[in-house]
Amino acid sequence: MPPGIDEQLAKYLTDAHSIEVQALAQLRTAPDLAGAPELVEAFRSHLVETEEHERLTRELLERRGAKPSKVKDAVMGVGGKGFLLFARLQPDTPGKLFAHALSYEALELASYELLRRVAELAGDDDVVAAAQRIAGDERAMMERLETHVEAAVGAALDAHPRDDLPTLVKKYLADAHAIEAQAIALLERAPKLVDDRELEAVFEDHLSETREQSELVQSRLTALGGDSSSLKDAAMRLGALNWSSFFQGHPDTPGKLVAFTYAFEHLEIGGYEQLKRVANAAGDAETAELAQTILGEERNAARSLANVFDEAALQSLRAVGVSA
């Protein structure tokens, strides 16, 4: 076993437990906000799975003579409740909840894929088996959510104030532009936070693509007589800068950054899936086609990130002085 890898594996297990605590905080309330029976059932079913995930990660820590971090768990629990409050205050709560849930499942999936790779290097078969099992559950939940995107959009439109559909298309485009602004800010800094050419290239390639996406969304919004929200864009950019500061404060930045960016791609995927359907409902074929094109690019970016999970795990270990 490489020196120090066992200690690092325990830290990753602590992080995994905190992620499950946040997931539980969200899933206990999500069914009340979902707005569609299919989503209610999906969230309730996954709550049972997540309770088991929390138990498994806690027991794996206890077998090592370690305990979950009370501070991390408390912070993550509050963060989960904070997002639910944000979603509840949005006019299209079910839609925002859907996109966030898809993104959070992607974060969990990526985290467990990285955990499994570290456990394999450490020769810990119990952690490998648990990580594989939980990653499978998270992947299945992502697939369930994507199966119910139509229901999410229907519930979002039902919950939204009675704007006409063309007005809603412009609002969804403005949201998409704000998310792209956040993606640009994050991707501009990402290559500077990793010391690996393969990881840098993934971020740099998608940065040029994301800049073009932002321009296309802005152009379409302008053509429809709308405008992006400069205040919303600024807030999203600030959020991305805060996240990059968070990554710089963690010595295992490569893994955390890849996992987070993978999750962010799925936030965008959730948003564009909804934009496409709202545009189709409004008879706006041009906006629907734009959303479909960008969707393909976001899915390709997510696959590119998944393809570097191995390298991200190795670079994270090297960043904390563990040779593997």
What is the fold named in CATH at topology level of the largest domain?
A: Ferritin
Order of helices and strands: HHHHHHHHHHHHH
Amount of beta strand: under 5%
Helical proportion? over 70%
What does this 3D model show about the protein?
This protein is mainly alpha-helical and about 325 residues long. The protein folds into two domains: about 1-160, Ferritin, core subunit, four-helix bundle (Ferritin, Up-down Bundle); about 165-324, Ferritin (Up-down Bundle). It is built from 13 helices and no strands. Helix 8 packs parallel to helix 10 and helix 11 packs antiparallel against helix 13. The radius of gyration is 20 Å and the shape is globular. It starts with a helix and ends in a 5-residue tail after the last helix. Residues about 235-250 have low confidence and may be disordered.
Write a concise synopsis of the structure shown:
This protein has 324 residues and is mainly alpha-helical. It has helices at 5-27, 30-33, 37-63, 70-89, 93-122, 125-147, 149-159, 165-189, 197-223, 230-248, 253-281, 285-306, 309-319.
